[in-house]
Amino acid sequence: MTADTDALREALLHELAEAREPDEVERVRVKFLGQKDGSITTLIRGTNFGALDKDERRVVGNELSGLKSFAETAIRDARQQVEAVAARQRRRGLVDLTLPGERVNVGSINPVNTIQLFLEDVFRGMGFMVEQGFEVETEYYNFDALNVARDHPARDMQDTFWLDSGALLRTHTSATQVRAMRKYGTPLRAIFPGRCFRYEALDASHETSFYQCEGLMVDRGVTVANLLSVMQTLLRQVFERDVSVRLRPGYFPFVEPGFELDLSCLICSGEGCRVCKHSGWVELMPCGMVHPRVLEAAGVDPETHSGFAFGLGMTRLAMLKYGIPDIRLFDSGDWRFYRQFPATV
Ligand code: DAH
User: Fold this and answer.
1) CB count, 10 Å around CB of 265?
2) Structure confidence by residue, pLDDT tens digits, 32-63
3) Residue range 111-338, CATH number
4) Probe residue for ligand 1, chosen from 191, 254, 261, 291 as the CB with the greatest number of ligand atoms within 8 Å
């Protein structure tokens, strides 16, 4: 008898350990305790108590009822355990702990924005204010007020996106110059970072939309020396090393004199390489002394005041600083490009 009950206990525990679902536990219960032919039920039913004497009856009776309550407890525990696991999995979804974790994308900052935030910081440090201006502009602020002649090719359908209303999408951030002088008067130190638009044929260095940062300083006695020192301070911080700059004459209707500011080549430090076409210099930004007609349009007296202005291509600067070979990558929406840039400034 004892051998039988031990074997049944063992078999029961073994089968319960295999059970993963509530109905598998129920199958085990039926197999051992089922009314019809559960093995424990059958054992109890098949025991002929009448053939046993009083003491034997007590021993066998105890053993069998002990077996039965052992089985009931074991089955109840197993059912609770299986149900708890099932509930947990329902809550979490099925979890395979051997799978690699999911990467959390925290996003990154477009390198042009990084450059813009950086420029704003540097210029604020030199006492410049930051003004956004408008992407939709009037012909007056974008061209007339800047001394761009009526027949200047830049006004052409070829270059400018005109709106049905007669307004246009600004072709440069210079459009904010006269607005700012009228709004704030002089002395004025300001930058106008923002998006510009041109009707361009696309290639690796031309996009229909790009980002500039215009700079303007107007006061009594501003000279080219001020322009150069501001530029040098800026570029030293952008490129984190000493850089040389040089001015070449350049023509823009809104400055007189106008310049092209070149930067000593960062790749070869002026020795000459493919990037600088063996000249040792890379063209960086156009600039100049604000044209008297522009000052007049802004209500500033050119007899008493002067100023410098520059048009920094932020997209171009980002390409130079990060070695980005194609302007079309910036607005490509391609995550493989963006993920290379950090999420913090
Ligand atoms: N607005 C010009 C452009 O987009 C760039 C420029 C040239 C800006 C000379 C200036 C400047 O402020 O002085 O091509």
Assistant:
1) 22
2) 999 998 999 998 988 888 888 888 889 998 99
3) 3.30.930.10
4) 254
